[in-house]
Amino acid sequence: MTTVAAYAVPAAKAPLERTTIERREVGEFDVLIDIKFAGICHSDIHQASEGWGEAIFPMVPGHEIAGIVSEVGSGVTKFKVGDRVGVGCMVDSCRECENCKAGEEQYCLKGMVGTYNALDKNGEPTYGGYSEKIVVDESFTVRIPDGLSLDVAAPLLCAGITTYSPLRHWNAGPGKKVAVIGLGGLGHMAVKLARAMGAEVTVLSQSLRKKDDGLKLGADHYYATSDPKTFEELQGSLDLIISTVSAPLDFGAFLSLLKTGGALVNVGAPEEPISLNLFSVIGGRKTLAGSMIGGIRETQEMLDFCAEHGIGSEIELISASEINDAYERVLNSDVRYRFVIDTATI
Prior knowledge:
Rossmann fold; Quinone Oxidoreductase, Chain A, domain 1; alpha/beta; six-stranded parallel sheet; about 25% strand; 17 strands; zinc; seven-stranded mixed sheet; oxidoreductase; alcohol dehydrogenase (NADP(+))
């Protein structure tokens, strides 16, 4: 075991505090990663407050991890010491079910092992990226291309792949009209990625406060959802809508914006149940769907795509002592657009 410094949530809704945790010894197929940067995802806040259900404490959040390999196991073939690597939302899966064999480990039928707030195969709690080091199986580690700085690459391991995967699955590209609900940590990545894929991109936000940002990030259009005229003007015009918000929506209203056969895909996960009149989907053969990150193969594909197109997250770099303030600011939508922790300050 190796003792490393970390920031942990001692109990539900409690402030994070500096502590130490134990990392396992490097096994045959493991890599030891010196974490350089860790993004703060809204998912971290949901889980730290038990908004998505009972959680494991103490909890070290963080599943947007970028760092450098400092040790490899004897059987490791994918990486060597000094490589630039990333770890996202999962660190293991059964590797045997049909989804795992298809490269969609995130949908493992036995349940993927989360990077934190989960139990590994030995029944030990997993701890995330708000820490100095992490030990991960090489099969759940990805290479960060040289064209991406580690700090702006860290959020790609969740925010990037969470939006890239549905855009690819629902065929965003030239000739497609794609809308993004919410211009936050996820939403700003969805705009960048959809634009790079060649789609016509619209942002749907509560107000026009971030319109200039949205257009600079690559949106062709920007509408305020607080204005009823938005829903009149855009009715039946969109092929795909990606909802990145974690608050309940009037899904009937947003579904009305889709063309026949269109899809509204949720990547934000509200804590509350939703209500839906099924005629909203029946009337136009529409799809209300969800999507969760991507498999390891697709995550690597996303990183390579971002490097090719010069896409990184828009970040605000913070020290570890600012994490609790950052949580409050995320809840107040006061970040443009992703907090990233400089783990040298832990």
